[in-house]
Amino acid sequence: MSKLILSAALLAIALPTAPAIARSMNGYTVRATTMRAGPDIDYPAVLRLRRQTGITVYGCLRDWSWCDVRAWRERGWVRQRDINVDYRGRRRPISPQIGLSIQLFIFRDYWDSHYSSHRFYSERPRWEDRYYQQHRAEWGPLPDRRSPSVQRAPDADRVQPQGHGAPVKATPPQRVKPKKERPPADSGRTDEHRPRTP
Q1: Domains along the chain?
Q2: Distance of alpha carbon 118 from its chain centroid, rounded?
Q3: Among 15, 98, 107, 124, which has the minimal tally of Cβ within 10 Å of its Cβ?
């Protein structure tokens, strides 16, 4: 019985220091900063944020350098050092102990979801090239670039039959020309036109 009481007491002591479940948090900018369309200062600016601007923080990269946030109706990335969050009734700097989730930066998904109405979206191919050429480990695994929305897959004109087996080339239907009926050999001839046999 004493061991059970001791275990319960130790658990009660440990719980307050355990990280919270990963979730979004209310936060504030601690200085004037810029929300960008990716976790790097070279990405286009989405919004200029003043000091003490209220934001929602969804999570940060695994090295905690940049965080995915929302301000008003805009979504983008802000440096971690420019943000504090509400944690247990106090404003605190972001750290792994507060329970924010680790966010990935998948360029195609992020830009298509949040920036299709922005002017810089017209330069999406150039920024996507940059994403693949200068990808960083803290952004997460590099996704396969091949996609019907980006480029035509080499087997896009193939269909896969039900069950096992190799893909079968899809053949477009062909028009069949109707055969012309040949008239009979004697058609249109009369006995008058037949050659006479001597």
Answers
A1: 20-139 (2.30.30.40)
A2: 17
A3: 15
Contact 125, 49 (CB under 8 A): no
How many CB atoms are closer than 10 A to CB 59? Answer: 19
Phi, psi of 180 (to 5 degrees): -80, 130
* pLDDT for 182: 56
The answer to whether the Cα torsion of 50, 51, 55, 61 is positive or negative is positive
- pLDDT computed for residue 167 by the predictor: 35
Task: Using CB atoms within 10 Å of the CB of residue 111, give its burial: 0 to 12 exposed, 13 to 18 middle, 19+ buried.
Answer: buried
Distances (CA, A) of 153 to 79, 131, 143, 144: 37, 20, 15, 12
The SS3 assignment for 83 reads: strand
Q: How far apart are CA 29 and CA 16, in angstroms?
A: 26
Q: Which residue has the tokens 């944020």?
A: 49
Q: Which of 12, 48, 46 is nearest to 31 (CA)?
A: 48
